[in-house]
Specification:
Largest sheet of chain A: 3 strands, mixed
CATH architecture of the domain at 32-152 in chain A: 2-Layer Sandwich
Oligomer: heterodimer
Number of strands of chain A: 3
Helix content of chain A: 55-70%
Helix content of chain B: 25-40%
Distance between the termini of chain A: 81 Å
Shape of chain B: elongated
Strand content of chain A: 5-15%
Radius of gyration of chain A: 25 Å
Radius of gyration of chain B: 25 Å
Strand content of chain B: 25-35%
CATH superfamily of the domain at 32-152 in chain A: Potassium Channel Kv1.1, Chain A
Distance between the termini of chain B: 50 Å
Number of helices of chain B: 12
CATH topology of the domain at 32-152 in chain A: Potassium Channel Kv1.1, Chain A
Structural class of chain B: alpha/beta
Largest sheet of chain B: 13 strands, parallel
Strand order of the largest sheet of chain A: 2-1-3
Order of helices and strands of chain A: HHEEHHEHHHHHH
């Protein structure tokens, strides 16, 4: 069938070929990139979203071939659990029809579904991936969590060992007390 | 996992601390030895006088400014004071802050101040928010060439020329908000330059001439009185208009005629102000192009269903060929029965655009 068309009707075929090329171009625009997380799970991700990740951009600058080939772009410090969350966040925020109120509700729910450990893991992943919007959202959220909390809460939250001796800590607090600097 | 968490890099912790007021950031130095100096590299200083005892505020600000790591840039400096801080001290603090590549300055001062050149010629500044201040430039020239965002709220200028000079020196401005602006004096021949890069303007004051803003895409106006009227420029690029007015003129339709590319119109109707004049249908003038061709979204808030209001909405729906949504939010003093009648009247209007949705809240 194809051969027949080729020999008899060259003109329409040309158009069809052009059409096909056009189609290819549009497909290329919506192309996907293969990402591999630290636990060796591969994800096919819309290029429009993957290219928001600074780490992916950087990788493609060094080895541009990876965008076309089947090789996966390795994300050494991001586990599949985090990547799923990051993609969920970016797909929502990338969605053209999402209104301001939708995004606010989404963000609140997104945050509520994370425990503190997951939140910190996600922050490290966002930092590694170099995704600005999510990074700012997470750091701001963490600031809100520790705001007005007592010293022990914040130590536990960040897993800080207090390496001050009690005397040192007392003296240091004393030193700063004049300015009213204290933990509530 | 615990190991990984305790390895949150300092830069990242600093970013978290940058969202806290400086006092809280300093307090994290009690957490452990590692945290003792962390706050010193946070690129933000944020002081709110209300959270300090009155006698200690000034010294705290000095101390924290001096204790910061001097090599670290200071991106944002925020100072809110409500007891009338000594302006001389404020200028000293600002001189220190602006030397650290300051980008964002947010001042609410409750005092009268002559700002020094350290601020007015700060070449790194991109955002400047100023409120509750009586402000004069004396003869200091302004060079804020990187300033993109300027928000003024409850600011009284010594004279209108000070404001004009501030704008002239901020010639790359993109976003301007002006709320409750006052001038003590008016100089002869004060001229406002046009700001070529201005994209968004929000005006809630009587003291602003729209001529300076004729390039904008986004405009929000709360019209206070008729000063500056008769001077409505052609808003060639305006696509989004939010409009509210406390005076009878100009009529909404007259304003829209100056916005040939308007796509999104929001009207907030003030009580007892009729903005719509005679029935526009009776008007023999042609329908403005922006309504017939460009208008995609129209929102009417505080709708009371008067003849003029209804006439206007009917006119828009009948003539806007590309309207997608007409959103009407009724005045909350209107009872349910009346609301139903309003909705019925509106939904019976012929809609020229086949895809227009009417929503009534």
């Amino acid at each position: 069938m194809a051969e027949e068309t080729e020999s008899t009707k060259t003109e329409p075929l040309k158009t069809a070929e052009e059409e096909f090329k056009k189609l290819e171009i549009t497909e290329e625009e919506e192309s996907e990139l293969k990402l591999e997380t630290s636990d060796h799970v591969t994800f096919m991700v819309e290029a429009s979203i993957a290219m928001k990740f600074g780490a992916v951009q950087q990788y493609l600058e060094v080895s541009p071939a990876a965008s076309a080939s089947a090789t996966a772009i390795p994300l050494h410090n991001v586990a599949s659990r985090e990547l799923i969350l990051i993609l969920e966040y970016y797909r929502m925020h990338d969605w053209v029809d999402a209104g301001e109120r939708d995004l606010k509700e989404f963000d609140e729910r997104f945050l509520k579904d994370l425990n503190y450990e997951e939140l910190k893991e996600l922050l490290l992943a966002a930092n590694y991936l170099n995704v600005e919007k999510l990074f700012n959202f997470l750091t701001k959220s963490i600031a809100n969590i520790i705001r007005n909390k007592d010293v022990e809460f914040v130590r536990t939250f960040f897993g800080i060992d207090n390496d001050y001796t009690p005397e040192e800590e007392a003296a240091y607090r004393e030193e700063n007390a004049w300015a009213g600097v204290k933990f509530v | 996992m615990a190991d990984r968490i305790s390895s949150i890099p300092d830069a990242l912790l600093c970013h978290i601390l940058s969202f806290l007021p400086t006092k809280a950031a300093v307090a994290t130095s009690f957490l452990s030895r590692r945290w003792k100096t962390l706050w010193r590299t946070v690129p933000v200083l944020d002081f709110n006088q209300e959270t300090y005892s009155r006698s200690k505020f000034d010294n705290s600000v000095y101390t924290f400014i001096l204790s910061r790591d001097f090599d670290q840039p200071l991106q944002r400096f925020c100072l809110r004071s409500s007891f009338g801080t000594d302006p001389a001290k404020v200028n000293v603090w600002l001189a220190a802050a602006t030397q650290r590549k300051l980008e964002h300055l947010d001042l609410s001062l409750d005092c009268s101040i002559v700002l020094f050149s350290s601020v007015l010629q700060c070449k790194t500044l991109t955002v400047f928010k100023l409120s509750n201040v009586h402000f004069s430039l004396k003869s200091c020239s302004v060079d804020l060439r990187r300033l993109k965002i300027l928000h003024l709220s409850s600011v009284t200028f010594f004279q209108d020329k000070d404001f004009a000079d501030l704008l002239s020196g901020s010639f790359n401005l993109e976003d301007l908000e002006v709320t409750d602006l006052y001038f003590d004096n008016y100089a002869d021949g004060t001229k406002f330059i046009r700001l070529p890069k201005l994209v968004s303007v929000h005006v809630f004051t009587r003291e602003f001439l729209l001529e300076a803003a004729n390039n904008v895409q986004f405009l929000r106006i709360n019209w206070m009185d008729d000063r500056g009227l008769g001077l409505i420029p052609e808003f060639e690029n305006l696509t989004h208009l939010k409009f509210s007015s406390y005076i009878q003129q100009p009529l909404v339709l007259d304003l829209i005629k100056h916005c040939p590319k308007l796509q999104n119109l929001v009207i907030y109707k003030q009580e007892n102000i009729e903005l719509f004049g005679e029935d526009p249908e009776g008007d023999s003038q042609p329908v403005p192009l922006c309504i017939s061709l460009h208008l995609k979204e129209c929102t009417f808030k505080n709708y009371g269903g008067s003849k003029g209001e209804f006439g206007f909405l009917k006119y828009v729906m009948q003539n806007a060929r590309n309207l997608r949504t007409m959103t009407v939010v009724s005045n909350n003093r209107v009872d349910e029965g009346r609301k139903l009648a309003m909705l019925r009247n509106l939904s019976l209007c012929r809609r020229c655009s086949p895809i227009c949705k009417l929503s009534f809240e």
